[in-house]
């Protein structure tokens, strides 16, 4: 259970860091983190068993959506914490 909580926190922090330090749009940051997470999970599936296409595709889509949604929450937090530039009149 502790590992799951740490993983969720790391995904949130990755979203915050992607927006805060790279100045990416929150949706771009969430998509990039979601894609990276999904690729890692699929690579682990393919390395551990001889999986067929359908379970791998379903897992890829599900992982992408889950990780991207959580990263989007972190990215929006990072966007809210990003310092604003003063408008010059």
Oligomer: single chain
Give me the strand/helix succession: HHH
Radius of gyration from the alpha-carbon trace, in angstroms: 16 Å
* Structural class category: mainly alpha
What percentage of residues falls in helices of 4 or more residues? Answer: over 70%
Give the overall silhouette. Answer: elongated
* Major sheet characteristics: none
Feature tags:
mainly alpha, 89 residues
Outline the structure in words.
82% of the residues lie in helices and 0% in strands. By secondary structure, the protein is mostly helical. The chain starts with a helix and ends in an 8-residue tail after the last helix.
Layout of secondary structure:
Layout: H1 2-22, H2 26-48, H3 53-81
Helix pairs in contact: 1-2, 1-3, 2-3
In short:
With 89 residues, the chain is an all-alpha fold. It contains three helices and no strands.
